[in-house]
Amino acid sequence: MDQIQSTIYQETPTDLRRASKVIVLAGNQFQEYDLNQFGKNRIYFGRNEAQNDIVIPVGTVSGSHGKIKIQNGDIYVADLGSSNGTYY
After folding, report:
1. Most distant CA pair in the chain: distance in Å?
2. Is the dihedral of CA 73, 84, 50, 56 positive or negative?
3. Domain range for 38
4. Through-space distance between the first and last CA atoms of the chain, rounded to whole angstroms
5. Is residue 87 in a domain?
6. What is the model's pTM?
7. Residue 79 buriedness (CB in 10 A; 0-12 / 13-18 / 19+)
8. CA 29 to CA 35: how far, in whole Å?
9. What is the CATH number of the domain that holds 66?
10. Residue 86 lies in a domain
């Protein structure tokens, strides 16, 4: 009798592999963003609508304020030389 060997591969759903959210707090207002919605591993944020994925229309936020980098499942936040800094 021949033996049949099988292996079952179960793919992890995309939303579990990279289920990441960021909350942007500006003054007394906040906005939550799902990082998966951008479909890329570098997400820029700042006041300038044309240059950023996440737009924060607040005077204390620089035009190109910072970026969020996703690498190997880890999330990094970097300030891009903003006037008032980035806190996380």
Report:
1. 77
2. positive
3. 14-79
4. 63
5. no
6. 0.74
7. middle
8. 19
9. 2.60.200.20
10. no
